[in-house]
Each structure stands twice: as structure tokens, then as C-alpha cells.
Design goal:
Blueprint (H helix, E strand, L loop, with lengths): L12 H9 L9 H4 L4 E6 L5 E8 L2 H19 L10 E8 L8 E7 L5 E8 L2 H13 L6 E4 L2 E5 L4 E2 H8 L7 H18 L9 E7 L4 E7 L23 H10 L2 H21 L1 H13 L5 H15 L10 H16 L1
Antiparallel strand pairs: 1-2, 2-3, 3-4, 4-5, 5-7, 6-7, 8-9, 9-10
């Protein structure tokens, strides 16, 4: 459904100001520093399958310096720069995914006291990706940790089972509560459409599984924000239309009526309204910045506003001059629907 590789867009001044005001901009590490590796080898998982990531290696003179800076990055990201809180950590491995839009580096960091480990990512910064992260932070039930340093983006790892793997593992599991999964997929679908987050096929989201004393809870979380507000086709912003998600859709058809699906959509809209009220000031500043930013090509903007105007039977979309205006119109409609 994605027509071509997305164009990266530079961070404009208003977004820089937003990042600075809300403590997202800190000295970290430059993405280009990590490109100075001298060798790489395919990363094979425990089942002997090529993960499509490559583990990279640095010369003796570079490795110590890069590892020290990456530990400081982790401190900035998760411990507000308190180095003494992470002096027991070390960098175990640095991987690169040469096929991704941003060619991200994944850093595996380990606690030498108990061997517990975590990941974070170093990517080329792109304004649409940053807007996607921040919208997710403000309008979804999920909090997002990330930092920007110049043209480098640092993202904390989002834990969960990749959607495609989740379906393979649990699709035929009798204890699986399909209603809970289907409900979460409906709510996830609704959030993506309102926030115009595209390309949410099953490899680009994870399922967070939380056992409770009587039941297991699920939450679907986006992990890839490359296609925030770029594509022109409306269906790209609806996960239900991706063939990779057909098992989630089929599950919903099996266990839900149209009435219950609509109820879950209304629930999510109500929750988003509550989040808007709780983050009104930063959200308005962010949308102001989005309206000033170029996040797509003219033909995509024209196509999307036309399709949204037709879908909602609302001519206000036709007057929108940016992706930011389209999202603001979506959010205004949420409050109008509640009255």
C-alpha cells in the first residue's frame, strides 16, 4: 500500500523550539559517528534465522570512545543524565538495519551486576518521525522516551511481541481472549486514523502482553513512525486494510458485532479527548509547528484532504493546507461528535 520510499524532511525552527522547551533536545551522539565501523556481520537469532540486522565493529581507537558516549546517551534518555546511576552498565553490541528508511542503529546495553539488558536506537532525525513520536506521547495511552541532538534521533526501546510474531504464536491458542485482542485492534485502528499515522502493518507494531490475576491484558503499540502524515491514500492510515493484519481483522469479525466495534471506537475517542485536555498547551504548539512544516508532497496532501472530506462529508478538509491542519480538523471533530 505504500507507493514509494518516503522523503525525509528537515526539522524546522518551530519544532526545534518545541523540542527545547519540552526537554527533548539534549547533547547525545551523532548518527554519523556510528557509521565509522570497520566491519559487520549478519545477526542470526537463536533459531538460526537471519534477523536482517548486522552487528558492527569499530577499531580499537574508536570503540571505547563510542561506547562511553552511548552510555551517556542512555543516561540522558532514561536517567536525566545521572551518570552515577548507570556506571554499572556496558555496551554489549551495536547493530545496524541497512534496509530501514532511517538505517537505524540498535544498541544493546547490559547491567554487569545482574546481566539484565535493554535496547535503544540511534537514527537519522526526520521531522515527520519526531511529530509521530510526540503525537503518540500526547494522544495515545503510551509514554514515549526520545531525544534529538542536531540531526540525530535517539529512541528508547518499546517492549512487546511484534504483531506478525504474536499472531503466529497465539492465533490458535485456546486460552487467548480474542475479544480483548480484537477490542485493542479497533482502538489502535482508531488512534492511527485520527493521528494520521500510516503503514501500521503487523511488523510495525508490537503487542504488549500484561498478565493480571484473572486475565491477560493486551495493548497494541506503534514502533515505527516513518510514515507519519505522508501518504495521500486514506486507507494507509487504517491498519485494518493491510493484508498483513488480516488475522487481527478476522478475529474481530469472529467475536464482535458492529455495535460493539462502534462502542470501542467511541471509547477511544473519549479517551483521546481526555488526553487532549490534559496536554492542551504542548499539543497546540506542536500542531502549530506541524502546520508550518512540509511533511509530504503536494499531490499527497491534495489526495488525502479530498478523501477525508468525502469520507467525513466535511468540506473543512478541502481547505486544509498542511498535514498539521488535517490532524487539527480530526481533533476538532472529536469534540463536535461529543456534543
Amino acid at each position: 500500500m505504500i507507493s514509494r520510499k518516503k522523503i525525509p524532511f528537515k526539522i524546522n525552527d518551530s519544532l526545534r523550539e518545541y523540542l527545547s522547551e519540552f526537554d527533548r533536545e539534549k547533547s547525545a551522539v551523532d548518527y554519523t559517528d556510528l557509521l565509522r565501523y570497520t566491519n559487520a556481520m549478519p545477526l542470526i537469532n537463536a533459531e538460526g534465522v537471519d534477523t536482517l540486522w548486522e552487528t558492527v565493529f569499530y577499531g580499537p581507537g574508536e570503540q571505547e570512545s563510542i561506547h562511553l558516549r552511548l552510555i551517556q546517551v542512555y543516561a540522558n534518555l532514561l536517567a536525566h543524565g545521572e551518570v552515577h546511576a548507570i556506571d554499572h552498565l556496558y555496551i554489549d553490541r551495536i547493530d545496524i538495519c541497512p534496509f530501514g528508511n532511517s538505517k537505524p542503529f540498535r544498541i544493546r546495553i547490559v547491567n554487569r551486576v545482574n546481566d539484565n539488558f535493554d535496547y535503544f536506537y540511534v537514527k537519522n532525525a526526520d521531522s515527520s518521525r519526531i511529530y509521530g513520536l510526540e503525537l503518540e506521547h500526547l494522544l495515545s495511552p503510551n509514554r514515549i522516551n526520545y531525544l534529538v541532538d542536531g540531526n540525530t534521533l535517539i529512541e528508547a526501546h518499546i517492549a512487546g511481541i511484534p504483531g506478525d510474531q504474536f499472531i503466529k504464536m497465539y492465533r490458535d491458542s485456546n486460552p487467548l481472549n480474542k475479544i480483548r485482542i480484537a477490542k485493542e485492534f479497533v482502538k489502535f485502528n482508531e488512534r492511527c486514523f485520527i493521528m494520521l499515522l500510516g503503514d501500521m502493518h503487523s511488523s510495525n507494531f508490537v503487542v504488549d502482553v500484561t498478565p493480571d490475576f484473572e486475565e491477560v491484558h493486551f495493548r497494541i503499540r506503534a514502533i515505527d513512525f516513518d510514515q507519519q502524515s505522508y501518504e495521500g491514500r486514506m486507507k494507509v492510515y487504517l491498519p485494518q486494510f493491510f493484508k498483513q493484519n488480516v488475522d487481527f481483522v478476522t478475529m474481530g469479525i469472529e467475536v464482535m458485532t458492529p455495535e460493539s466495534q462502534y462502542q470501542y471506537q467511541l471509547e477511544e475517542r473519549s479517551l483521546i479527548r481526555t488526553r487532549i485536555r490534559a496536554s492542551e498547551r504542548p499539543l497546540n504548539i506542536l500542531l502549530d509547528s506541524m502546520e508550518e512544516s512540509t511533511l509530504t508532497i503536494d499531490s499527497n496532501l491534495e489526495q488525502l484532504r479530498t478523501e477525508l472530506a468525502r469520507y467525513y462529508k466535511d468540506h473543512r478538509y478541502e481547505a486544509c493546507r498542511s498535514m498539521g491542519e488535517l490532524i487539527r480538523t480530526n481533533l476538532r471533530r472529536l469534540f463536535e461528535q461529543a456534543n
